Amino acid sequence: MKSMTAFGRASAVRDSFEITVELRSVNNRFLDWSLRLPRAYAALEDTVKNALTATGISRGKIDVTVTVTDTRAVSETGAPVLQPDLDCARRTVEAAALLSAELGIPNDMTATRLMAMPGVMVPVRNDQTEDDDVLWARLEPVVADAAAQFLAARQREGERLGADLLEKLAGIRVLVNGISEKSAGNIAGYREKFEERLRALIGESGAVIDESRIVTECAVYADRVAIDEELVRLASHFDALETLFRSDEPVGRRIDFMLQETNREINTIGSKCSDADIARTVAEVKSEFEKIREQIQNIE
Fold first, then answer.
1. Could you count the other beta carbons within 10 Å of the beta carbon of residue 182?
2. Of 91-105, 149-163, 191-205, which range is least confident?
3. Is 65 a residue whose pLDDT tops 90?
4. What's the CA gap between 15 and 298, in Å, rounded?
5. What are the C-alpha distances in Å from 129 to residues 132, 133, 279?
6. What angle do the packed helices 211-225 and 132-202 form, to 10 degrees?
7. Rounded Cα distance, 133 and 99, in Å
8. Would you give the DSSP letter of residue 202?
9. 14, 172 in Cβ contact below 8 A?
10. Has this prediction a pTM greater than 0.70?
11. What is the Cα–Cα distance from 110 to 108, expressed in whole angstroms?
12. Is 186 a residue whose pLDDT tops 90?
């Protein structure tokens, strides 16, 4: 079992490029991608999606952020490395010489002053266009590392959720066993209560109680409130849920379906049993199942 909420991050320096890949996700009914890539890597969006999907990510809203920094263009302090724009520098020098000649003023242009002029010193840029295969070869190992950390986080959180769900299911089994015992006791005691009510109604009239009628009434009542079939189906649903809670496959949707079926059986039991204690226990069971339903919204 895996959670849909997780975070994974990986960084590496490859071919003088510092690459960082971050993955974060929240729950979603389907698989919804949101990718942010540097402009030079934009054509790799589908490649990144396919690579991540191949790792087993099948559900959730996944945000992927990729940053790439050319380390040759950044100093040890993090400041950009500058280089002269010679075309701009020449035009600036020529403009200074023209002004000096036309206006009759000294030309005091020096290299130091020239470097301070706007546009003369610019950040180092890698203007070389690289093939998509080269870019992906550079990016792929970092994406794989981030995905591994992301999936490990999903697995850890999923294991915690699974343990909590198994504990809740065990508690529900105990409650349902209590319903079964109370229901059997109610049916067994119905004949005695029915006879008492009948005798009270007849009073001292001296009328003879029809034993066959009592048997018939008890049989009708037992058939009306019998929950044996519902209990058998519930036990089967509980076993299926326990198997799903222990599974390593994406099971969120299947668990949701099984909870719907289980809730239907619980509602049927509640409608059949008029006993106040059973009604309270049914309400408690439904409350516990609602807690499970809330939890599985985060399961892949």
1. 15
2. 191-205
3. yes
4. 39
5. 9, 12, 72
6. 160
7. 52
8. H
9. no
10. no
11. 6
12. no
